[in-house]
Amino acid sequence: MQVLTPRYPKNCLLTVMDRYSAVVQNMEQVVMFPSLLRDLQPSAHGGEAQAGAPSLYNYFTMLKAIRVDVEHGLLPRKEGQGKMAGGGAHEAENEAAETEEGEELLGQLDLEAQFHLHFSSLHHILTHLTLKAQEVTRTYQEITGQAI
């Protein structure tokens, strides 16, 4: 039985998501020892390392985690996750005020404009992450002497 995979236009979000998943899967298959990436910094376009940038190991783990979300959807977040103990009540009041202001602002914006903003942002972010996954793979191949 042959399974047909649909072909989407080049700039379709589904194409970008598929491309991201494929590049990260390739990165996972190539990078056999992620610990080799621990102290390596990503290079900027000029060839110099960016100051304060996370290591390639951090990118490797982040890209893998995002791939799971892209392929399987977001898991629901638990209430209060990420909040620190102590000033929780004060933070909750501030968060509620910000939420009310945000909802008022969202009500004023056109839904189509919001959709296009988020859609283009997601497209841009996935494209950027795909390039980072390719950089991690390429750098790992260079340090291990694998053919590119």
Automatic annotation (TrEMBL):
What coarse category fits the chief subcellular location reported for this protein? cytoplasm
Q: Which cellular component terms (GO) are annotated to the entry?
A: cytosol; nucleus
Q: Supply one GO BP term.
A: regulation of lipid biosynthetic process
Which keywords does UniProt give here? Cytoplasm, Nucleus
Compartment(s):
Cytoplasm; Nucleus
* Region Disordered, annotated ranges: 78-102
Instruction: Provide the family line.
Output: Belongs to the SPOT14 family.
Would you tell me the protein name for this molecule? Thyroid hormone responsive
Q: Which species does this protein come from?
A: Pipistrellus kuhlii (Kuhl's pipistrelle)
